[in-house]
Amino acid sequence: MAQQAYVTETDNGGSEPERPGSRLRRVAGRVAAGWRGDRRIWRRGLIVAAVALLLALVMVGHAYIPNSVGNLGSLTETFLPWIGVFVPLLFLLALVRRSAVALIAVLIPAVVWFNIFGGLLSDKAGAAGGHVTVVTHNVNADNPDAPGTARDVAASGADVVALEELTASAVPVYESALAAAYKYHSVQGTVGLWSKYPLRDVRPVDIKLGWIRAMRATVRTPEGPLAVYVAHLPSVRVKLEAGFTARERDTSADALGEAIGDEQLPRTVLLGDLNGTMNDRALKAVTAQMRSTQGAAGSGFGFSWPASFPMARIDQILVKGVEPVSSWTLPETTSDHLPVAARVKMDPSS
C-alpha cells in the first residue's frame, strides 16, 4: 500500500511535501493560540505553583527538617531523589490548568533536582584499572537459597567480599560455597569477610548493640595493607505511632564513625548495610570522613533495596585513602538486597 505524503501549499498554488517538524509547529501554534489573550493564565494554577515551590524548598532545605517528630528529616533524606518524580506530574498539571505561573514555578524544583542529583545520571566510571574489587551483600537471614547466593557473589570475581545478616545455621553453607574462591575468611557475629588475600588483625567492632554486627580486618593486598570494615547497622522502622524510628541505628552509626576515625592505617574501606543513604544526616559520623564509590565513580543512583524494586541505596561502599575507579550493582540474588561492588586504586605512596 502506498504511503500517504502530507503536503503544504506553495506560493505558486502548487504543493510540496510537508517539511519535518511542521506538524509539531502547527500543534504548538494551536496551543499558543488557546493561551494568547487569556489573562487568567497568570491567575490559574496557584496551588500547583505553591506545591512546586514547596518541593524545591524541601530539596534545598532538607537538612533543616527536624528529626524530633518521627525522624521526619531522615525519612525525607532517605528518599530525597524520588521527589523529582513529582516534577513531570506538576508540569502536566500546569499545562492542563493552562497556567503560566505554574509552568514557571515548576522550573524551580526541576533546576534544583538536577543541581543536586544530575551528576549521578552520568557514567563516572574510570578507564579499566584499579587494584582491588570489593563486594558487599546483605544476604537476608531468611534467604531460601544461601548456596545459590554464595555462588552468585563468588561469580563476581571480587577480591574481597563482605556478607551481612549471617545466621549461625547459614555460616557453614557460605563457608563451604565460598571456600574454593576465597582462601581467607572470618565471621564475627552476623557479619563476615572473605578475601583472596591474607587477613590480619581481625576483630569485632563495638557499635553499641550488645551483640556483634560489625568487624574490622587488615587485608594484605599486593599493593599494601588495607583496613576493611564490615557493618550492618540496625534497621529503621516506620510506625504509625512513632513515625520513622532509627535511634539504635543512629547510635550505632556514631560508634562506627568513631572506630573508623581511630583507624591507624591510611587506606580504609567500609562495606555493609548501613540502613541509610549518603544524604541521611544520621550517618554523618561516617559519611563526613569517607566517600561513596557510587557517588565518585558509579553510573546512576545505584539503588540496592528492595531488590524487587530498588528505591534507595542503603548498602554502601565507602572509602578513604584509596581512589574509586568504578562502582555498580550486581544482579539480583534470592536476598531482598542487591549486592553492590566497586573497584578501587591504591596509591603506593599511602
From TrEMBL:
Pfam families: Exo_endo_phos. Residues 1-13 have a biased composition (Polar residues). It comes from the Bacteria. The keyword Membrane applies. The chain crosses the membrane at residues 46-67, 79-96, 101-121. Keywords: Membrane, Transmembrane, Transmembrane helix. Residues 135-337 form the Endonuclease/exonuclease/phosphatase domain. SUPFAM superfamilies: DNase I-like. One of its GO terms (molecular function) is catalytic activity. InterPro entries: Endo/exonu/phosph_ase_sf, Endo/exonuclease/phosphatase. Residues 1-22 are annotated as: Disordered. This is Endonuclease/exonuclease/phosphatase domain-containing protein. It comes from Streptomyces cadmiisoli. The lineage of its organism: Bacteria, Bacillati, Actinomycetota, Actinomycetes, Kitasatosporales.
